[in-house]
């Protein structure tokens, strides 16, 4: 049997809610999402637009870096990869900073966003995504720790370097793979990913 629980994680039947700071209030009518930065074709979607895109149902395990894992969470949403293909990232785009309503951010590699199970999720267990879960729409990145799954997602900004997000600036790992226990950043972030190394003087 395939191992389901990453090292150092404890299973919970509960599904805790983890939000740092205020919970933003964003109605479906007010919600809009953008892909911007290093793309040929910047893209903007409303909630209605999102529902017209091809829909994907996914059941995935959810791993929080604070050591709880919840198995078999059922989501529905739109593949980020499909939207990125339409936005056409420029060749120099390697990373993204994800922005949420309320100011939360998290960084990802473009290749992590292009995985087929990365969604803009609007439905959880068959119901509209509740506000406290990031409704109307959150990012789902199930192969990385859950802090990457930005709630109340507002934009993906493509960049030619890694710009650290909210928790990453506090010392969380720049990538966050639960199977490698990438919880905290020990040592420097790989230099080739950072702006000050990628820009020639
Ligand atoms: N905008 C925003 N997204 C966020 C967070 C947050 O504080 N703000 N917390 C992250 C963390 S640490 C986790 S574990 C998951 C929790 O998702 P949940 O509250 O649906 O369990 O959301 C992530 N996304
Ligand atoms: Mo978390």
From TrEMBL:
InterPro entries, per the entry: OxRdtase_Mopterin-bd_dom, OxRdtase_Mopterin-bd_sf
SUPFAM superfamilies: Oxidoreductase molybdopterin-binding domain
Residues covered by the Oxidoreductase molybdopterin-binding domain: 22-167
Pfam families per UniProt: Oxidored_molyb (PF00174)
CDD domains with a match to the protein in the record: arch_bact_SO_family_Moco
Domain of life of the native organism: Bacteria
Signal peptide limits: none
PANTHER family, A to Z: OXIDOREDUCTASE MOLYBDOPTERIN-BINDING DOMAIN-CONTAINING PROTEIN, PROTEIN-METHIONINE-SULFOXIDE REDUCTASE
Name of the protein this chain belongs to: Sulfite oxidase-like oxidoreductase
Organism, scientific name: Thermus oshimai JL-2
């Amino acid at each position: 049997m395939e191992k389901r629980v990453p090292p150092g994680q404890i299973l919970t039947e509960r599904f805790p809610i983890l939000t740092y700071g205020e919970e933003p209030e964003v109605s479906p009518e007010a919600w809009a999402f953008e892909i911007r930065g290093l793309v040929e074709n910047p893209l903007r979607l409303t909630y209605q637009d999102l529902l017209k895109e091809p829909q994907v149902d996914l059941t995935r395990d959810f791993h929080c870096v604070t050591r709880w894992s919840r198995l078999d969470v059922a989501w529905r949403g739109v593949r980020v990869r499909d939207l990125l293909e339409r936005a056409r990232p420029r060749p120099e785009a390697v990373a993204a900073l994800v922005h949420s309503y309320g100011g939360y951010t998290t960084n990802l590699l473009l290749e992590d966003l292009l995985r087929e199970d990365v969604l803009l999720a609007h439905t959880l267990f068959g119901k509209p995504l509740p506000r406290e879960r990031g409704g109307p729409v959150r990012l789902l990145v199930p192969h990385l720790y859950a802090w990457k799954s930005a709630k109340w997602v507002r934009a993906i900004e493509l960049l030619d370097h890694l710009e650290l997000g909210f928790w990453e600036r506090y010392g969380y790992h720049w990538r966050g793979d639960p199977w490698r226990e990438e919880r905290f950043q020990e040592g420097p972030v790989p230099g080739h990913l950072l702006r000050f190394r990628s820009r020639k003087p």
